[in-house]
Write a structure and sequence with these properties.
1 helix, about 60 residues, 4 strands, alpha+beta
Amino acid sequence: MANEKFDFFQSYGNIDIWFSQDTVAGKTKYMFWFMGKTYESEDKTEILNTAKACINKSLGRGSR
């Protein structure tokens, strides 16, 4: 998807998660930036779990 337009989805902690919808392909892409890295997923549960893991790692917490 060239020239994707992302809209705000939700915040998780200090991470803002964005999404883009491809209505032709019927897919939604979720993404966020954290500590200089971009994270992407087509599954909203997965992107929220990734955000949680990033925050926990940055705080020195192990995954639980």
